[in-house]
Write a structure and sequence with these properties.
Blueprint: H1 14-28, H2 40-51, H3 59-63, E1 66-68, E2 77-88, E3 94-104, E4 108-110, H4 112-123, E5 126-127, H5 129-144, E6 148-157, H6 158-161, E7 172-179, H7 180-183, H8 185-195
Parallel strand pairs: 2-5
Antiparallel strand pairs: 1-4, 2-3, 3-6, 6-7
Helix pairs in contact: 1-2, 4-5
């Protein structure tokens, strides 16, 4: 017997979101009616629209407009140091980092800004870094069909630096290698050499 996929809950209204923020302020021990906090629920709701705009975007759309491979060029394309801000899905705390994305074209290339857009779209959702790394790599692989894809992400997680163990200066590095980046050690080494040490 087939199991049903649970239906996505209905999105709350803006007013409900603001009321939830007021409840959190009260639960934290403050008074949401005091002057400094009166407009905070509205500000937080607006901030959430920005921070989580990735739920309204489909990263595939950014990769659909491609160009024929540049004549005479069949080497690796790498975009380094793509800065991003995301949020941990476990504590809703910020994740601040940068991504390095590379691919080996097969017969088409994409504008480099589109690679940054893909990173941005996945980052602007509640995330786990390992999942985000894989999502970026598989999206590029599935749409562009290159010979291979490599993604490396280095990020600081404020759920670890500002709470819990309180370890500042710690960064987490994750990678996802697909196609020739996984199968061919020389291709993988070339990519890692091009992005340099994790920073």
């Amino acid at each position: 017997m087939a199991t049903r996929t649970p239906r996505k809950p209905k999105k709350p209204s803006r007013k409900q979101a603001e009321e939830a923020v007021s409840t959190l302020l009260l639960w934290a021990g403050d008074d949401p009616r005091r002057e400094g906090l009166l407009d905070t629920p509205k500000r937080v709701a607006r901030a959430y629209e920005d921070w989580f705009s990735g739920y309204n975007d489909d990263p595939v759309n950014y990769l659909k407009r491609t160009f024929e491979e540049v004549e005479g060029y069949d080497e690796m394309i790498v975009l380094r140091d793509i800065s991003f801000e995301s949020h941990c899905e476990h504590h809703m705390a910020p994740i601040i980092g940068c991504a390095h994305v590379g691919y080996l074209p097969n017969d088409k290339v994409v504008g480099i800004s589109k690679l940054a857009r893909v990173v941005e779209t996945f980052a602007r959702r509640f995330q786990v870094q390992e999942k985000m790394t894989a999502q970026i790599a598989h999206c590029i692989q599935d749409v562009l069909k290159p010979k291979g894809v490599g993604v490396v992400i280095s990020a600081s997680h404020q759920c670890m630096t500002t709470r819990g163990v309180h370890k500042s200066g710690v960064s987490m590095v994750t990678s996802q290698m697909l196609g020739t980046f996984r199968k061919d050690a020389r291709t993988r080494a070339e990519f890692l050499n091009m992005i340099g040490p994790a920073r």
